[in-house]
Amino acid sequence: MRVLRVGVIGCGSIARAVHLPVLRRIPGVVLAAVADIDPAALEAVRRTAPSAALCRDAAGLLARADLDAVVVTAPSGLHAELALAVAGAGRHLYLEKPLATTHSDGEAVVAAAAKAGIVAAIGFNRRFHPAIRRARSVVRAGGIGRVGHVSATFTDGGELPAWKLARADGGGALLDLASHHVDLVRFLLDAEIEAVEATMTSTRSEHDGAIMQLRLTDGAEAELQVGFRAPQVDVLELTGSRGAVRIDRHTGRVTRRPQRLAPTGALALLRLRLLVRPDSDPSYALALRAFVARVRGDDVELPTLEDGLASLLVVLAAEEAAAS
Question: Is 301 exposed, middle or buried (0-12, 13-18, 19+ CB in 10 A)?
Answer without folding.
Answer: exposed
